[in-house]
Records
---
Amino acid sequence: MEPAAARLIGAGLAAIGTGAAAIGVGIIFGQFLLGALRNPSASDGQFGRVFIGVALAEGLGIFSLLIAILLLFVVKS
């Protein structure tokens, strides 16, 4: 396999993490809504934790996008 082809395959695999981050954010908000509908009085205390979870999921998605961009445009074979 040529190094340029391996670089493109690696960038594509790293870009999968951005989609996984979107799925993770959807799961976090879905589970929060499920819990808030079951116990509305406890939802105020959990709302801050939801944003922490979303920030961590989005941070990992942005990190994987950064790796994909670095593989595409910075790393030369």
Note: The longest helix spans residues 3-38.
---
Amino acid sequence: MRVVVQRVSEAAVRIDGTEHARINTGMLVLLGIEVGDAETDLEWLCGKIARLRIFPDAEGVMNLDITQASGELLLVSQFTLHASTAKGNRPSYIRAARPEEATPLYLRMKQRLVEITGRAVKSGEFGANMQVSLVNDGPVTIVIDSRTRE
């Protein structure tokens, strides 16, 4: 599993021209699920996201996690995070998990983030054509991959 975590002052997802979800200060988490990803990847990644200290404390130092900062979470599936551009100029998505494998993990990640953080998690719709808008705060953007544990 691979995520792009962005600290945002606001973010929203639109589907078919209608706003589906919106958050204010918090994290936009773009999630890519790879063939073979498992519950262990999900557990590690959810823990990492929940404990990620990317919000400023009283001195302005990035020292608070999402719960301490009273931030909101928006989870959006994005299979293109596993694009390979090794051959030619048209990306290959062969490493991205098929919907029958990825959908349950996506839904479980949303549930697990709620359990770990105690916060509501808003989301896009798996497999939908979504328009995501955001104001990246900082900017702070972090890529985390469960396979490399970095």
Note: The chain has a mean pLDDT of 96.
---
Amino acid sequence: MERLQIRRLDKHITQTLAPDMPLHGWLKSIRTSLNMSLAQVAKRLGVSKQSAARLEANEVDNSITLKSLRRAAAAMDCYVVYALVPKDGSLNALVEKQAQKKAHELLDPVTHTMMLEDQESPYSEYQLQDKAAEFVRVMPKSLWD
């Protein structure tokens, strides 16, 4: 079930644009691109010009709430697109990366001890990859510990 959910979300994520926020924030950038004054946006929001300016400042310093951002966007006939996008580009890649890390955490201490005792490592790269693949296949909650 989780694998199907990951595939569906990955497909959706790859279709989502995740551009960086402009230097002055989306609200101000969109407003100025539309040649709309701060007073005009404030009037549409039913707030003072200072409150509208504070919304723009709050967006830039990441303290704006989603509710306020949505309301301000609606005042400019826009809507907010909200998404979490994995840094590696897909949820599958994220799971595989964590599985590799977890396999190393599990097998490396044994390898290190064997090397200190001047013994050959009991684990090969194949076994490490096999353990990582098992983590991907089973996806236990402990994968994220």
Note: The CA atoms of residues 99 and 135 lie 5 Å apart.
